[in-house]
Amino acid sequence: MIIEPRTRGFICLTSHPVGCEQNVINQIEYIKSKGKIDGAKKVLVIGASTGFGLASRISSAFGSDAATIGVFFDKPGTEGRPGSPGFYNTAAFEKQAAAAGLYAKSINGDAFSNEVKEQVVNLIKEDLGQVDLVIYSLASPVRTHPVTGKRYKSVLKPIGADFSNKTVDFHTGKVSEVSIKPAEGEDVENTITVMGGEDWKMWMDALKEADVLAEGATTVAYSYIGPEVTKPVYRNGTIGAAKDHLEATAFTITDDLKSIGGKAYVSVNKALVTQASSAIPVIPLYISLLYKTMKEKGIHEGCIEQIQRLYSERLFGGDLALDEKGRIRVDDWEMREDVQAEVSKLWETATTENLSEIGDLEGYSNDFYNLFGFKVDGVDYTADVNEVVSVPSIK
Ligand code: NAI
After folding, report:
1. Three-class DSSP category at 105
2. Does residue 365 lie in a domain region?
3. What is the CATH number of the domain that holds 85?
4. Mean pLDDT confidence for 376-389
5. Helices (H), strands (E): how many in the chain?
6. Per-residue pLDDT at 28
């Protein structure tokens, strides 16, 4: 079929298999161009099909020749109905891994469930014995708790008071004022249940219990801090409460892994256009001003550049450069004083009329379409493509 983007708000309902494949190839080429990283050789990535998780899987496989197992929750394409980008990305990744002689297997299912944890444990036992790196990169709006069966929803709200600020509709470029009501009832607890550290710890407990973690195994989860302007809705909001919990859980997991000399870290990454971040009000305007500023200064990075730097300089580069809270920081360039000063200045003046000039709306929009395999250079979107693509390791 010929597949075109069909968007509804910050969601795109279609995705393009060839565009997704090209994105994966581009990321692999970037990693190869940066040379080998003496990193982990057997890697489990939870949330491996898009964004930072996919970049982590690619960096491990093509930077360190690692065997990878990827877990994600995606829809395969069916006749006349394109699948989700993560499925196409994984199909492309496995194809490239096989051509390079690298082990790669994937599990498509709910990472929050006991069943998927069990499947992964069995797969590691059968094929790899143990893993030495576990990347935890889930971003989900819901979680069904494996013990109680209760379904929790996360929300993106400020805590304590209304928050009003500017935002942009990145499809139209219209800058407007948005007002968000504060969390109520169990919003905070529920968001912590979905996006906090409980599931990360459950994963690490299950892996340790089954003796599938190698001596000295490391696990890394991703977090975000961001600027003053997004603080009420992000870091001091419901999602920030969940990130506080995730960050605290790193210390608990490190304690749990003492007997095998294992370590858990949180890496604070840069704000980027992903399916998760496009859903948060105010963030798209911030990102478009940030992209403009960082591109002008020659320090812009995407997911793959971020993870390449995380691996080569921090995780396997001998200098974790932890902050006062024990976190790895690859948001260091985003948070640079000169960058933040410039973005705040632009924020004050941003309007519908001047945004295409002072902000990188085009870069934002392109990145958004790229997530779904659209507007990717070199892809012929008028060509008929097969929407039913299989992931070799998924039967
Ligand atoms: P994303 O939406 O691109 O990727 C999420 C991944 O999780 C996908 O592979 C998806 O299939 C998987 N997933 C979601 N629910 C699942 C489930 N129930 N079972 C199995 N897999 C499931 O998200 P992104 O942006 O890469 O986020 C990953 C982490 O990085 C999150 O913790 C996020 O908070 C963090 N982060 C994101 C930043 C950003 O600007 N996008 C900045 C800094 C940190």
Report:
1. strand
2. no
3. 3.40.50.720
4. 98
5. 13, 13
6. 98
Amino acid type, 291: Y
Long-range contacts of 29-34 (CB under 8 A, 24+ apart): 30/304, 30/305, 30/308, 31/58, 31/59, 31/62, 31/63, 31/304, 31/308, 32/62, 34/63, 34/308, 34/312
Count up the domains in the chain and report the number: 1
Task: Quote the pLDDT of residue 161.
Answer: 96
Domain membership of residue 67 as a residue range: 7-157+188-281+297-336
pLDDT at 276: 77
Residue 361 in any domain: the answer is no
Residue 45, ligand 1, Cβ within 6 A: no
Q: How confident is the model at residue 302 (pLDDT cuts 50, 70, 90)?
A: very high
Distance CA 14, CA 374 (A): 9
Token readout for 32 is 């190869």
Q: What is the mean pLDDT of residues 342-352?
A: 97
Ligand 1 close to Cβ of residue 137 (< 6 A)? yes
Let me know if residue 363 belongs to a domain.
no
Beta-bridge partners for 175: 168
pTM here?
Answer: 0.98
Nearest ligand 1 atom to the CA of 195 is 32
In angstroms, what is the span from residue 357 Cα to ligand 1's centroid?
A: 30
352-367 confidence digits (pLDDT tens):
999 999 999 999 999 9
Q: Report how far residue 31's alpha carbon sits from residue 13's, in angstroms, rounded to the nearest whole number.
A: 29
The residue from 136, 234, 265, 286 that is catalytic is 234
The CA dihedral of 357, 362, 368, 373, to the nearest 10 degrees, is: -170
Give 278's pLDDT tier (boundaries 50, 70, 90).
Answer: confident
Answer yes or no: is 53 within a domain: yes
Whether 371 lines ligand 1, by a CB cut-off of 6 Å, is no
